[in-house]
Automatic annotation (TrEMBL):
CDD domains: HTH_MerR-trunc (cd04762), SR_IS607_transposase_like (cd03769). PANTHER family: PTHR36172, RESOLVASE-RELATED. InterPro entries: DNA-bd_dom_put_sf, HTH_17, IS607_transposase-like, MerR-type_HTH_dom, Recombinase/Transposase-rel, Resolv_N, Resolvase-like_N_sf, SinI_DNA-bd. NCBIfam families: excise (TIGR01764), transpos_IS607 (NF033518). The lineage of its organism: Bacteria, Bacillati, Bacillota, Clostridia, Thermoanaerobacterales. It comes from Ammonifex thiophilus. This is IS607 family transposase. GO terms for biological process: regulation of DNA-templated transcription. Residues 9-55 form the HTH merR-type domain. Coiled coil: none annotated. Residues 62-207 form the Resolvase/invertase-type recombinase catalytic domain. SMART domains: Resolvase.
Length: 216
């Protein structure tokens, strides 16, 4: 059987070849509700997940509940995120995997997120759920969404409104950016990186103090 390409929608002729059936059979299956099709103008297209399902390759009915906080003193919020996700999505899937991270949403070394990406790549999950999009990543959410989608994994966002993150997390993000660029310039173990981080922390503290003094 010919291999299919990783794209989202297929024309009826392509699906007929992949499944080894006549186009009329696909039309009949659609009428009977055995296969789902999406109409684009006057042409029907078949989602990749439908093809995988018919081929017996659909991703298992498993969801990753992903939560993240910026610091160790926010573990209570981490638990609240997981509890909210369990209540919203736990009963909608056969299996649940809980993954968490403590660190900046800009960090590229988060073990929980990397594990979720690995499970998606191995097609072991069907969805990833989080309370806010910035729990998954502070920037570039669209790229992650495209990555997961390419493996048939949907991202479920519980709250679509922007998360009003505390100032502490914004400080962590700034420090992550500074550390990343400084590490490339001086080497990650250089004393210059440590010194720069300390100077940034002091500068941010002064800014915070100034803002509080200006607040009526």
């Amino acid at each position: 059987m010919p291999k299919y390409h990783k794209k989202h929608m297929y024309r009826i002729a392509e699906v007929a070849v992949l499944l080894g059936v006549h186009k009329d059979t696909l039309r009949r299956w659609e009428r009977e509700g055995k296969v789902k099709a999406v109409w684009l103008g006057r042409e029907r297209r078949f989602p990749e997940e439908e093809i995988r399902r018919l081929l017996g390759e659909a991703n298992p009915d498993t969801v990753v509940l992903y939560a993240r906080v910026s610091g160790h003193d926010q573990k209570g919020d981490l638990e609240r995120q997981i509890e909210a996700l369990r209540e919203a999505y736990g009963s909608k899937f056969s299996n649940v995997i809980v993954l968490t991270d403590i660190g900046s949403g800009l960090s590229t070394s988060r073990k929980g997120l990397r594990k979720a990406m690995e499970l998606a790549r191995e097609r072991k999950i069907r969805a990833v759920a989080c309370t806010y999009s910035d729990r998954l990543t502070r920037f570039g959410f669209e790229y992650l969404e495209e990555y997961f989608s390419s493996f048939g994994v949907e991202i479920l966002i519980l709250n679509r409104e922007e998360d009003k993150s505390p100032q502490q997390e914004l400080v962590e993000d700034l420090l992550t950016i500074v550390t990343s660029f400084a590490g490339k310039l001086y080497g990650h173990r250089s004393h210059k990186v440590k010194k720069l981080k300390e100077e940034m922390k002091e500068a941010l503290k002064r800014l915070d103090t100034d803002d509080q003094l200006k607040t009526p």
